[in-house]
């Protein structure tokens, strides 16, 4: 069967071109399929990482974890899908299989699956429950199926491929429509591999997995499914980091070889829009026991929104399920606050229905009228003559308004064209520039103005375009009140809490929510133990601002580096994210610290270097503890995962606490790149 993926464009152009009127502009360069247009209009949906890692506290399982660990006693897919719907998410993508190879559905392709789990006596099917719940809640369902499989004995050899193809086939035939399937790029490396416990490399992922074959199989089974990744063959691409950001200017097009990352390629041959991914919780993609204190702030999430959706990408926000199978309450509250903040942002479009006076209209035809900019219809658009690449339009608002966000959209069915634009406002009898930094528009751009502007009239100037611009919408919004809580840091035992403005800051150190009656922060306050500090502003009239929180390890005052194989470990013990220990030689490298007095230690954390270089990042560690500096006990040994894509602080909880510990030794046993090891900060957790 030949599948036509551009049919609506054909009908659209036909309808837009009756013989007696002006012809519609020709499509420019690469254009999206109908499926890609529908997908780009979803804007925002959930990721949910939930599997054996949820129970082991790891980000990448090795592949030898027992399926018996999977026992979510309160899992309720409908509750989760309902939360995502309430949060304004248009769908969810579930990690049906992560790198550890555990299949959360009763697959026939491998025994490493949910039928071996005690959950529902081996008769459970997480994929089915999620797919059904999404249907019931009216959101779309998609799936992540890791190509890398650290469990399968045949991984890296031809024998694995039929297993993998079989898994794709099952997921795309047994569970109804799948809106998107994710082919993660993390590939190869060491793993269990059926007991071989070795390193396997696959060379070219495109050749090994045969993405050409996979793509044609998916097109046949589910032609509407968006294929994420799959080398140069997918319909959508990675946004280039796991921070939920893409770059600006930003293009939905890439070169013929794929890639494109966070920027895309201007005038590229393939339409492959970006999806920005990030977890709502700084602890990682999977649920971790200590994560309640690490949920991203509302302000960070709003920045994520502006820097992803607001640059023309889609946003996939991960909300992990915990060991009981439920979402973490701290994540859920933030998710709903995030929805409320966006509702406030979009509550009123001050430009809706505005009268528009353009410098030109294509063929004088009212179908291309500039009032299409303010008609609230995403399909209609303003167009000018082909040789006009720099038109302007004056917009008279229905009533004078105060706004600080401008949203623009191009009619992407005709390709992405605009290179640059400016916006002026008519204030006190003259035109003033309110935004001269506009570059790309694409699916949409949300421009945050430096300060709110009050006016009844604005002017949009397209100042550069690859082909005559086709702009479909212009909207004006007002951002909600400041969402930032105070910034909380610690240097030695000194607690440092700061906030913009001069409001009073209240804080707690016992985990409770600060309120107007909580202690007031003043410089010089101490916090010399491990734990969580929460703070918020109290504004005039008693109004409380958003809560910030930070978790700290043991206070490092008085700590002494006893020995180091090389480099200066003090840089990893100075409460600063910007300095880091860098060894002079290759791994393994270690250092030993005297904490000055005995502690009960429960774990430690590793912060990889934060300067965007992966050199020396440590993915294998050993952590030893000692009471006297002579006899040592290995408290933990393991792997830090996913450092390259997501270099966050990673906590390790020891299987059991160790009491009376005065000394520790951190060994960086392996680096992901380079001939040194690095660490920005090591914290010790405990009392
Ligand atoms: C990455 C994976 O390695 C992470 O574990 C996570 O699943 C993220 C969404 O993609 O590449």
Which keywords apply here?
eight-stranded parallel β-sheet, binds beta-L-fucopyranose, 10 helices, alpha+beta, single chain, seven-stranded antiparallel β-sheet, 687 residues
Topology:
Layout: H1 7-15, H2 34-40, E1 44-48, H3 52-56, H4 77-86, E2 91-97, H5 126-137, E3 140-145, H6 159-174, E4 180-183, E5 189-191, E6 198-200, H7 205-209, H8 211-221, E7 226-229, E8 237-238, E9 253-254, E10 270-271, E11 274-279, H9 298-307, E12 314-318, H10 329-346, E13 355-358, E14 382-383, E15 392-410, E16 418-427, E17 430-438, E18 445-465, E19 470-477, E20 487-491, E21 494-498, E22 504-508, E23 531-538, E24 548-552, E25 560-564, E26 581-582, E27 589-607, E28 618-626, E29 632-639, E30 650-671, E31 678-679, E32 681-686
Parallel strand pairs: 1-2, 1-12, 2-3, 3-4, 4-7, 8-11, 11-12
Antiparallel strand pairs: 5-6, 9-10, 13-15, 14-19, 15-18, 15-19, 16-17, 16-18, 20-21, 22-23, 23-24, 25-27, 26-31, 27-30, 27-32, 28-29, 28-30
Helix pairs in contact: 4-5, 6-8
Bound molecules: beta-L-fucopyranose (FUL).
Beta-L-fucopyranose is lined by residues 59-60, 184, 186, 277, 285, 642, 645.
Number of continuous helical runs: 10
Largest sheet: 8 strands, parallel
How are the strands of the biggest sheet laid out side by side?
Answer: 7-4-3-2-1-12-11-8
Ligand catalogue: beta-L-fucopyranose
The number of E-state strands comes to 32
The chain-level mean pLDDT equals 94
- Low-pLDDT sequence parts: none
Q: Rg to the nearest angstrom?
A: 27 Å
Q: Kindly, what is the distance between the CA atoms of the first and last residues, rounded to a whole number of angstroms? A: 66 Å
Strand content: 25-35%
Overall geometry comes to globular
| Helix content range | 10-25%
Class of secondary structure makeup: alpha+beta
């Amino acid at each position: 069967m030949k599948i036509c993926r551009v049919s609506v464009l054909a009908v659209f152009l036909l309808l837009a071109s009756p013989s007696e009127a002006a012809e519609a502009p020709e499509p420019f360069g690469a254009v999206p399929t109908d499926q890609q247009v529908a997908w780009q209009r979803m804007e925002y949906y959930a990721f949910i990482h939930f599997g054996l890692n949820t129970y082991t506290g790891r980000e990448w399982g090795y592949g030898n974890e027992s399926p018996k660990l999977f026992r979510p006693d309160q899992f309720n897919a409908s509750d989760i899908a309902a939360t995502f719907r309430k949060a304004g998410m248009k769908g969810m993508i579930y990690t049906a299989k992560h790198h550890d190879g555990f299949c959360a559905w009763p697959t026939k392709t491998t025994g490493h699956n949910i039928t071996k789990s005690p959950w529902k006596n081996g008769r459970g099917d997480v994929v089915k429950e999620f797919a059904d719940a999404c249907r019931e809640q009216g959101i779309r369902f998609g799936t992540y199926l890791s190509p890398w499989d650290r469990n399968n004995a045949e991984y890296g050899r031809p024998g694995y491929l039929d297993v993998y193809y079989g898994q794709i086939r099952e997921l795309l035939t047994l569970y109804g429509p799948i809106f998107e399937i994710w082919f993660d790029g993390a590939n190869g490396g060491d793993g269990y591999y059926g007991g071989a416990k070795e390193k396997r490399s696959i060379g070219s992922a495109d050749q090994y997995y045969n993405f050409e074959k996979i793509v044609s199989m998916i097109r046949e089974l589910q032609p509407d499914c968006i294929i994420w990744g799959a080398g140069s063959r997918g319909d959508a691409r990675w946004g280039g980091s796991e921070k939920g950001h893409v770059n600006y200017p930003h293009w939905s097009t890439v070169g013929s070889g794929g890639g494109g990352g966070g920027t895309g390629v201007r005038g590229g041959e393939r339409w492959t829009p970006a999806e920005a991914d990030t977890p709502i919780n700084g602890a990682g993609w999977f649920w971790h026991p200590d994560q309640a204190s690490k949920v991203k702030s509302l302000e960070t999430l709003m920045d994520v929104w502006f820097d992803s959706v607001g640059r023309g990408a889609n946003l996939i926000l991960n909300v992990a399920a915990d060991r009981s199978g439920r979402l973490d309450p701290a994540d859920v509250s933030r998710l709903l606050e995030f929805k409320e903040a966006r509702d406030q942002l979009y509550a009123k479009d001050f430009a809706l229905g505005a009268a528009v006076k353009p410098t030109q209209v294509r063929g004088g035809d009212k179908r291309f009228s500039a009032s299409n900019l303010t008609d609230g219809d995403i399909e209609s658009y303003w167009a000018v003559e082909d040789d006009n690449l720099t038109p302007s339009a004056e917009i008279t608002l229905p009533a004078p308004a105060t706004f600080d966000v401008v949203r623009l959209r191009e009619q992407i069915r005709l390709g992405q064209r605009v290179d640059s634009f400016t916006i002026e406002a008519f204030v006190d009898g003259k035109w003033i520039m309110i935004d001269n930094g506009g570059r790309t528009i694409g699916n949409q751009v949300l421009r945050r103005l430096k300060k709110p502007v009050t006016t009844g009239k604005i002017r949009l100037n397209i100042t550069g375009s690859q082909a005559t611009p086709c702009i479909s919408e212009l909207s004006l919004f007002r951002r909600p009140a400041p969402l930032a809580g105070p910034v909380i840091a610690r240097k030695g035992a000194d607690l440092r809490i700061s906030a913009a403005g001069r409001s009073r800051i209240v804080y707690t150190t016992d985990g409770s929510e600060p309120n107007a009656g909580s202690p007031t922060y003043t410089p010089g306050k101490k916090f010399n133990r491990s734990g969580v500090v929460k703070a918020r502003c109290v504004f005039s009239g008693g109004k409380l601002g958003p809560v910030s929180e930070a978790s700290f390890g043991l206070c490092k005052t008085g700590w002494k580096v006893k020995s180091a194989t090389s480099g200066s470990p003090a840089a990893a013990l100075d409460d600063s994210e910007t300095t880091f220990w860098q060894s002079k030689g290759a791994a393994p490298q270690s250092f030993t610290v005297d904490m000055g007095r005995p502690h009960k230690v429960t774990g430690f954390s590793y912060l990889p270097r934060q300067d965007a270089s992966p050199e020396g990042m440590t993915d294998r560690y050993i952590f030893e503890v000692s009471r006297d500096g002579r006899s040592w006990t290995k408290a933990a040994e393991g792997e830090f995962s996913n450092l390259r894509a997501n270099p966050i602080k990673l906590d390790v909880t020891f299987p059991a606490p160790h009491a009376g510990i005065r000394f520790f030794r951190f060994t960086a046993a392996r680096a992901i790149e380079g001939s040194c090891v690095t660490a920005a900060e090591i914290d010790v957790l405990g009392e």
